[in-house]
Design brief:
The protein has 190 residues and is of the alpha+beta class. Among the domains are: 66 residues, no CATH class; 63 residues, Winged helix-like DNA-binding domain superfamily/Winged helix DNA-binding domain (Arc Repressor Mutant, subunit A, Orthogonal Bundle), CATH 1.10.10.10. Helices cover 41% and strands 11% of the residues. The strands form 2 sheets. A 3-stranded antiparallel sheet has the order 1-2-3. Strands 4-5 form a two-stranded antiparallel sheet. A hairpin with a 2-residue loop joins strand 2 and strand 3. Helix 4 crosses helix 6 and helix 6 packs across helix 7.
């Protein structure tokens, strides 16, 4: 057989020891060592890594307590869902067993969740954190909206939109609107 091993992006955990958490049918699951695990089947050493990360994050623990989630398994489930639940082709736990920075997930509660930014994470770009309005703009850019359409839908002026795009460009380290559209797709905002 004459196969060519092309450089293709495979999900973490599909062919290695990394872990990729995701939500499927309202349940936390993960990929690890080529297998898919439901929440109750996740290997204990992976749960231990998540628990240690939770303990190192008092703001998230307080948010879970304030949310009245007191069962330890439910706390872990919610913690994973809010911090790592997006399938983004980036390992949530590296092949070395190290937890990776939390990812931005649009869970459908953004903008109305009392625990936003406490349990989940904000959209961290290479040079700063995107504001809620900048994220809205970035999503619309990624969906190929024209500037006028973005302004009309968000009820903002062209100058305000230009300021948001300039701020996003600076925070993301990119220069043009097409680069922002690519970024929106890379971050799974679309």
């Amino acid at each position: 057989m004459n196969l060519i091993d092309k450089k293709q992006q495979l999900p973490p955990g599909l062919v290695d020891n990394a872990v990729e958490f995701f939500i499927h049918k309202h349940e936390v699951e993960c990929l690890f060592q080529g297998s898919r695990y439901s929440f109750t089947e996740i290997p204990s050493h992976i749960i231990e890594v998540v628990e240690n990360d939770m303990l190192a994050n008092p703001k998230a623990l307080k948010a879970l307590a304030d949310w009245d989630i007191t069962d330890q398994n439910e706390q872990i489930r919610q913690y994973i869902a809010c911090r790592f639940g997006g399938f983004d082709y980036q390992a949530d736990i590296s092949v070395d067993g190290l937890i990776q920075p939390a990812e931005y997930i649009d869970c459908g509660r953004r903008g109305s969740c009392a625990y936003e930014g406490k349990l989940c994470t904000s959209l961290l770009l290479s040079n700063g954190i995107a504001t809620r309005r900048e994220i809205e703009v970035l999503k619309m850019i990624g969906q190929s909206f024209l500037d006028k359409e973005i302004c009309d839908q968000l009820n903002i002026s062209q100058d305000t939109l230009r300021n948001h795009k300039d701020s996003l460009s600076q925070k993301a380290g990119v220069e043009r609107k097409p680069s922002l559209a690519i970024l929106a797709h890379k971050l799974n905002l679309i």
